[in-house]
Amino acid sequence: MKRRVINLFSLFAILAMVVSCGNVKQSNNSIINTDDLKQRISVLASDDFQGRFPGTIGEEKTIKYLEEQFKLVGAQPGNGQSYFQEVPLIQITSDQIMKLKIKGAKEELLLNFSEDFIGGTPQPIENIDITNSELVFVGFGINAPDYGWNDYAGVDVKGKMVIALVNDPGFYDSSLFKGKNMTYYGRWIYKYEEAARQGAAGVILVHETEAASYPWGVVQNSWSGTRFYLADNIVTKSGLKFQSWVTKESANRIFDLAGVNYEKALQDAAKKGFAAQQLNLNASIGFKNSVKYINSKNVVALIPGTDLSDEYIIYTAHWDHFGVNPKFKGDSILNGALDNATGTAALVEMARVFNSQEIKPKRSILLMAVTCEEQGLLGSQFYAENPIYPLNKTVAVINMDALNIFGKTKDMSISGLGYSELDDYAVEVLKAHNRYAAADPKPERGGYYRSDHFSFAKVGVPSINMGFGVDNIEHGKQWSMDTMGKWISENYHKPTDNYEPNIWKFDGMVEDLTVYFELGYKLSMIGEFPNWRDGVFYKAKRDEMMNK
Ligand SMILES: [Zn+2]
């Protein structure tokens, strides 16, 4: 009997989908209004918005603008009577005149901030003082029962300083972990969390351009000055007082001081059975911090569904960027036009398009512009841990972070392609447009963990991060890879990520947005809850919440 009901239901769903396809409103052959989209990007990326840094006038302007825009396109408040969800944060600004001292048996090493290392504290306290803390090399700093790997086995790092490598052993040996496909254990956030769980007093991560997938300059820009933490998080609650990165050159000098060859140490760390190593060095650091408690905001807007209005499809895009950094002479505003005024503007456009459908979505659509993505996915993590709508009623999350500005492509990339059944729906939508899904071209960059969909995956909600295709219709793949590589090295997280209406191509962006929309629309019309595939780490959590 039960089965019959489900079948009948699916039939209606399919019927509704077929009918609805013919009814998607078309104007200028596109459902997307390019002029409105451009206008919103230009406002969000304007100097007036000051680089949209959380807790500043830039935030105030951004969230006010988004509220206005959501109202304008007829989206309702997503949190009771409000368009906002408050995200309590601790904002810590560490003094940058600090020096990291490493003492060996005979000599010592003094490392300079920015040039040799960057660092700060997750603790909301004014003075950090670590004196002669033992330094332990913990390989990749990974404790992964699912891969039978524990770099902390047999070593007590309580109150000590650990030095660890970025990425995971699979980066160096394809038979380990997931090979070049970086696992969560390869992320810097994980390494700090694990060190905190182990009771370490400090962490020094070694930066390697290849393994981290970005140059030292990106670390400098992202870590200089203020850092944010969720008011309630495991790192702040632990004894971890210092988290830092050192350049590879600095790492070489530290290991030299210990009489250990760094390259050899790295090779050993990537072998099964690696054991943590006392370096017989002591590390000291002291610095002052200013601490502020602020409430930043996620912006949430709702397009209520019809028959299945208590089930939700969430679109996410982070509104925040890096604000103003006086370190950059001349233009010091990091406007974050591509990253992520594009995705944020698109949220409003999605709301408008959903609202203008003749056949309304059955499931509700939640448009969520999250804060503090650039600070470690904090806004989305906060929502995932404090959801407004039950997670077991949340069907899917579709993330938009940086839209295509290089022209039409045959493909769109899906990071973690094949992890969940959502990908099948995305593939179908792409197919209908004679396009195809491609795996993330550089999975070793850990793209899967680097935007807000991951905060939802972590708690079990199926989420999808679609992005740039590389199969450019006009110029081909190599051109795309080269062009993107060039864009990243010149503009990523720099003041030159500006809105360039005369350089950017919008035709590809509009096509991609059509796919984002149709995917969400399709998911809003079905009766099923797409799940993670068997063997995917996040599935157990989803199964557990769905069986409650
Ligand atoms: Zn981004």
The shape is globular
Quantity of strands, as a count? 21
* Count of alpha and pi helical runs: 16
Strand content: 15-25%
Q: Quick summary of this structure?
A:
By secondary structure, the protein is α/β, with parallel strands linked by helices.
Question: If you had to describe this structure to a student in words, what would you say it looks like?
Answer:
The chain folds into two domains: 22-82 and 304-546, 3-Layer(aba) Sandwich (Aminopeptidase); 92-291, Glucose Oxidase, domain 1 (3-Layer(bba) Sandwich), CATH 3.50.30.30. The radius of gyration is 24 Å and the shape is globular. With 548 residues, the chain is α/β, with parallel strands linked by helices. It has a 17-stranded mixed β-sheet that branches. It has a two-stranded antiparallel sheet with strand order 7-8. The protein has a two-stranded antiparallel ribbon with strand order 15-16. 33% of the residues lie in helices and 24% in strands. The structure holds zinc ion (ZN). Zinc ion binds at residues 318, 339-340, 373, 401-402. Residues 318, 339-340, 373, 401-402 line the site of zinc ion.
Which helices and strands appear, and what pairs or packs with what?
Elements lengths: L1 H20 L12 H11 L12 H16 L3 E2 L6 E11 L4 E5 L4 E5 L4 E4 L6 E11 L5 E2 L4 E2 L10 E5 L22 H10 L4 E5 L2 H4 L3 H8 L2 E5 L3 H4 L4 E5 L1 H10 L4 H8 L7 E27 L4 E11 L4 E2 L8 E2 L2 H19 L7 E8 L7 H8 L8 E6 L11 E4 L7 H11 L3 E4 L13 H7 L3 E5 L8 H16 L15 H19 L13 H8 L2
Parallel strand pairs: 6-9, 9-10, 10-12, 14-17, 14-18, 18-21, 19-20
Antiparallel strand pairs: 1-13, 2-11, 2-13, 3-4, 3-13, 5-12, 6-13, 7-8, 13-17, 15-16, 19-21
Helix pairs in contact: 2-10, 10-15, 11-13, 12-15
